[in-house]
């Protein structure tokens, strides 16, 4: 085991190192955060939460299987109890019949009372058959009782294991979700501060997904629920809604729907933190209300590349991604994103 005792020369070295770290300037507005920091932590916690959810759901499915098995055991136990009761009844009837037929007499008395050898043989055969029936019934009854006890123990053990495992999985899931929620709102707080200052914090560096898309176009987020659509009305907009909203949690990775070049990264205004990408054919896509960006203006992006993380900056009533498709980089030239993506093989 490695010793916890510190080397005496290590203390001043650590103090000097900490002084150097304290003296280093913090990341300025517009400067790239090469470490990823909180954004990377949110993505990591998303992955952990997803894995915990998968394990929890798998546990629930297994619990359903175990519950069905336990219920089948209960039905089996009920039938076995009925069988044992019937066996006990059979034993009583056999004993009474044996007593009435003289099966309880000694062998010598049976020989004296028999009128012929044939009658004696018949009596002996009846006694032998009755004894055999009694022995078989007793053996069967004992086996059924032993099987009943084993099945009862098995059913109880299955239920105990089920409750314990489900409790552990639920506890792990709640713990990860709590950490994720705290990290999400911390990330959102940093984003709100950037918007209030009117200066972006710079691109954060995240490990890009390993997925390589064979198709040229994808949806802007992987998992989502559609909310406000293109052209819908409401009190939140001065006119009609200019894009398609995707209801997602804070920190959800946002990806470029296709290959292109980043023509705008800005913070402030009604869209909060936003990214605009120009694609081949003269179309532009906008990704707004972000909590962080992972690209620089002027950079090239590939299809499905993470370009930011969703949030609720700007004129937003809750966490979501506002996605637009435009004919120009400016607001007011939008087309229906769902129809535009559908013509490119992406159905939302």
Largest sheet: 10 strands, antiparallel
**Could you say which structural class the secondary elements and strand pairing correspond to?**
alpha+beta
- The 3D shape can be described as elongated
Helix content: 40-55%
Mean pLDDT: 79
Low-pLDDT segments: 1-35
Using DSSP, what is the number of strands? 10
What is the rounded Rg?
Answer: 38 Å
Distance between the termini: 55 Å
Q: What fraction of the residues are assigned to beta strands by DSSP?
A: 5-15%
What is the count of helical runs? 5
Order of helices and strands: HHHHEEEEEEEEEEH
Structure description:
By secondary structure, this protein is α+β, with helices and mostly antiparallel strands. The chain contains 5 helices and 10 strands. It has helices at 10-23, 37-100, 107-113, 117-197, 337-342; strands at 225-226, 244-247, 253-255, 260-266, 273-278, 284-293, 300-301, 306-310, 321-326, 334-335. Strands 1, 2, 3, 4, 5, 6, 7, 8, 9 and 10 form a 10-stranded antiparallel β-sheet that branches. A hairpin with a 7-residue loop joins β9 (321-326) and β10. The radius of gyration is 38 Å and the shape is elongated. The two termini are 55 Å apart. The model is unreliable at 1-35 (pLDDT under 50).
């Amino acid at each position: 085991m490695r010793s916890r005792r510190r080397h005496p020369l290590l203390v001043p070295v650590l103090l000097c190192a900490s002084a150097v770290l304290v003296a280093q300037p913090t990341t300025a507005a517009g400067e790239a955060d090469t470490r990823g920091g909180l954004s990377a932590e949110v993505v990591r916690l998303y992955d952990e939460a997803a894995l915990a959810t998968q394990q929890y759901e798998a546990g629930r499915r297994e619990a359903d299987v175990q519950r069905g098995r336990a219920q089948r055991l209960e039905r089996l136990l009920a039938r076995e109890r009925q069988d044992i009761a019937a066996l006990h009844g059979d034993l009583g009837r056999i004993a009474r019949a044996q007593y009435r037929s003289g099966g309880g007499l000694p062998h010598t008395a049976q020989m004296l009372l028999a009128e012929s050898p044939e009658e004696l043989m018949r009596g002996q055969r009846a006694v032998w058959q009755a004894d055999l029936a009694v022995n078989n019934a007793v053996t069967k009854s004992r086996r059924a009782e032993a099987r009943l006890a084993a099945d009862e123990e098995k059913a109880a053990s299955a239920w105990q294991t089920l409750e314990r495992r489900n409790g552990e999985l639920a506890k792990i899931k709640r713990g990860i979700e709590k950490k994720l929620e705290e990290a999400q709102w911390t990330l959102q707080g940093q984003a709100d501060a950037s918007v209030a200052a009117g200066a972006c914090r710079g691109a954060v560096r995240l490990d890009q997904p390993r997925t390589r898309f064979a198709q040229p176009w994808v949806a802007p987020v992987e998992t989502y629920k559609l909310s406000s659509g293109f052209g819908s009305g409401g009190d939140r907009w001065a006119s009609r809604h200019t894009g398609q909203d995707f209801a997602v949690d804070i920190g959800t990775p946002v990806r470029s729907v296709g290959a292109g070049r980043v023509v705008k990264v800005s913070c402030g205004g009604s869209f909060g933190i936003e990214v605009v990408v120009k694609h081949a054919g003269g179309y532009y896509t906008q990704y707004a209300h972000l909590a962080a960006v992972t690209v620089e203006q002027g950079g090239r992006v590939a299809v499905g590349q993470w370009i930011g993380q969703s949030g609720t900056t700007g004129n937003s009533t809750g966490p979501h991604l506002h996605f637009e498709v435009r004919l120009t980089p400016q607001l007011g030239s939008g087309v229906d994103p769902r129809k535009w993506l559908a013509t490119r093989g992406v159905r939302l």
